[in-house]
Amino acid sequence: MPNIHQTRAKNSKNAEFYTQWSDIERELNAYLEYNPDVFRGKTVFCPCDDPYESNFFKLFALSFNEYGLKKLIATCYAGSPIANTQLSLFPNEPLEDRTTKSPHKLEVVELSDFNKDGATDLLDVEWILENKKNALTRLEGDGDFRSDEVTKLRDEADIIITNPPFPLFREFFGWIMDAGKEFLIIGNMNAIAYREVFPYIKDNKVWLGATGNGSDMVFAVPKGTEVAEKDREKAARLGYVGDYTRLGNSCWFTNLDHGRRHQPIPLMTMADNLKFSRHKELRGKEEYQSYDNYDAIEVPYVDSIPSDYDGVMGVPISFLDKYCPEQFQIVGLTQRGCHDDFPDTKKYNDYWEVRPNGAPTGSSGNKTNENPNITGNDGKKNYFINNEGRTVQSAYQRIFIRQKVGV
C-alpha cells in the first residue's frame, strides 16, 4: 500500500489544491437550505485537512453550534507544504518538534467563548488546543487515510467532507463507499466515468453537488507550483491574487440530498428542437442522428433533449449537473458501465483510422470500439473506414438516458 505522502511527492506538488472558503460555504448552504438539520447531531470528519490550513475545518469549527454538530474531527498527512500558515498555534513550541510538522488529529466536541473576549471564533479553537490536552494529538502513522487509525475515525464519523488528493480519488471514493458513509468531496469531472464511481451514479446512490461544473473553483497552491498563466489570471479576476489557480473541471460528489437535483429540466419537443434550436447541429435538420453501434439517438446538448422521445438518448456528461432522478433514468455510459444494457455493441475491428486528409494514422478500428459512433465523415476530424468504404466518426463520451414514464 503506497504511502500517501510518497504518492503525493511522486505526482509533484501540483497535486496540492486548497479549497477556498467561499466555494465550501456556497456548496454547504445548498444542503442546509434543503434540510436545515443535515449536520445536526452528526460527527463530521475531514480526513485530508490540517486544521492549521484547511478551510473545511475552519468553516465547520466556526459553525459548530449553528450546524448543531456532535463532533468535528480533522486529520492531516505528514509534511503538509503550507502547514502553520493560517493559524498560529503553539508559537513557543520548538520548530523541530512542532506538532504541525507531524501528522495529527484534532477533535472538537464543543465551541464556546472560552477566552471570554465576547466572540466565538478561531481564537477559541486556539484556547481549546492550549488548555485541553486531548484535543490535538499526534497520529502514530503518517496520516494516510487508508491506515487503521484514520479508518477507525472514518467508522466513527457520520459524514466525511474534504477535498481528497485527485491522484488518489478512486481509492478515496472506495474507502468511503466501503463504510457506507454520507459524504461531500471534490473531484475531477472525469471521475464520473471511473468504473469505481459510475455504477453508483447510475443507481442514484451518488450524484453531483449543488454547485454546477460550469462554476469555476479557485484553489490555493504551494509556493513554486507551476500554474498556467490563463488559470492564474482567471483566479486573479475572481479576486485571488498570488499562489492560486482555477480548475474549470472540478466538481462536488455527494450522497447528501439538495434541492437542485429535484428540479426538472425544461425541454422542447423533438419537432420544436429541429425547428427552433439555437444549435446549428440540430436546427433545420429532418431528424436527430442515431448511433451506428448503439440503439440510441445522439443529443449533443442538454438543452436539446426532446421532451417527447421515449427511447434511449446519448447526452453529454454535463447532463449530470442538471440530472433530475424523477425525470430521467440513467441507462449506461459509453466505454464504461453500459455493456449490460447494450450486450450486442457493434465492433469495428475491420476498420482503420484515417485523418481528414485521407492519410491512415496506423491505428485500427479497435480504437473506436464502444465509443458512440455516427455514420459518415464531416471532414473536420479523424474517422474510421472499412474495405467497403463505409465510414464512421466517434462522438464525445456520452451518458445514456431515457425519460421516466409519465414525466
Structure description:
This protein has 407 residues and is an alpha+beta fold. The protein has two domains: 4-262, no CATH class; 264-407, no CATH class. The protein is built from ten helices and 20 strands. The strands form four sheets. An eight-stranded mixed β-sheet has the order 5-4-3-2-6-7-11-8, sandwiched between helices. β15 and β16 (360-364) form a beta hairpin. The two termini are 48 Å apart.
In short:
The chain has 407 residues and is α+β, with helices and mostly antiparallel strands. Helix content is 21%, strand content 19%. The chain folds into two domains: 4-262, no CATH class; 264-407, no CATH class.
Query: Taking all residues together, what is the mean pLDDT?
Result: 85
Rounded radius of gyration (Å): 25 Å
Cα-to-Cα separation, first versus last residue? 48 Å
Number of domains: 2
Shape: elongated
Please bin the fraction of helical residues. Answer: 10-25%
Question: Uncertain spans, ≥5 residues at pLDDT below 50?
Answer: 1-14, 81-99
Report the β-strand fraction as a percent range: 15-25%
Order of helices and strands: HEHEHHEEHEHEHEHEEHEEHEEEEEEEEE
Number of helices: 10
Number of strands: 20
Biggest sheet, open or closed, and with what strands and sense?
Answer: 8 strands, mixed
Spatial order of strands in the largest sheet:
5-4-3-2-6-7-11-8
**Global structural class:** alpha+beta
